[in-house]
TrEMBL record:
This is Probable cell division protein WhiA. NCBIfam families: DNA_bind_WhiA. Keywords: Cell cycle, Cell division, DNA-binding. One of its GO terms (molecular function) is DNA binding. Residues 122-214 form the WhiA LAGLIDADG-like domain. Involved in cell division and chromosome segregation. Residues 18-99 form the Sporulation transcription regulator WhiA N-terminal domain. Belongs to the WhiA family. GO terms for biological process: cell division; regulation of sporulation. It comes from Streptococcus parasanguinis (strain ATCC 15912 / DSM 6778 / CIP 104372 / LMG 14537). InterPro entries: Homing_endonucl, Sporu_reg_WhiA_N_dom, Sporulation_regulator_WhiA, Sporulation_regulator_WhiA_C, WhiA_LAGLIDADG_dom. Residues 218-300 form the Sporulation regulator WhiA C-terminal domain. The gene is whiA.
Amino acid sequence: MSFTVRVKEELLSLKRFEKSELAAIIKMSGSLGISMGGLTLSVTTENAKIARHIYELLHHFYGAKSDIRHHQKTNLKKNRVYTVFLDEKVEEILADLHLADAFFGIETGIDASVLEDEVASRAYLRGAFLSSGSIKDPEKGKYQLEIHSVYTDHAEGIALLMQGFLLDAKTIERKKGVVTYLQRAEDIIDFLIVVEAMQAMQEFESIKVMRETRNDLNRANNAEMANIQRTVTASMKTINNISKIVDTVGLGSLPSDLQEVAYIRMNHPDYSIQQIADSLQKPISKSGVNHRLRKINKIADDLDK
């Protein structure tokens, strides 16, 4: 089961009955038709539980008895599509939910009464996510929450609802419509709190913490490996320079303090600067050892002049 499905199942388990939630679902997944008896309403979804939820919302608020129909998709995924079909009280429902436009279609924007009410805004976002929302598996790649809309003004309205809860929501046009999206993990966590998907929020937050911990460990390991590589490179350069001095003027030509450091470096190429410092007859600081090694390197460089 994908993370998106788990979020939607948790939202359905809340058993919330809010008109704003129903309005969002109809707006985003509904279509109107005409029969001998008047307007008909069809609301489609690929989730049987969401179809049942739509049926219950229509019956709870309007006493309307809809039919749940289904058919198989013809594409490779072969998902089953469910349609909640209603042929009674459609005009009454659209008017009550502020969805009907002047030409008996469905309004493309979000009604001001939703935008101005916090409870209604939460419910609308819950319905919008149930209808066409998705969250990328937080275990994989970048964080992303998306809600797909057909109309630009509706996508921007959803962004406004999110921004009302201080979420950094943006919109982008795609081939099949417009997407309202969140990309920051903190915003997605806050969105899950807004729609009351608390179990999903805790799961998402836990995965986020684990990912950040793994990333911190990887960065620390990479930094350690880089330090080791730098130490090895510097050590080999100094050893080569000491060998040059031995082959030309002899190690005895060096001052005694440099000879001592040179012997330790030659005999212990894997020693860190601190280990060299600790191995001297009279231990000195790491900066003191570095100073002596630089002197040895300069003497070797001067032999080429």
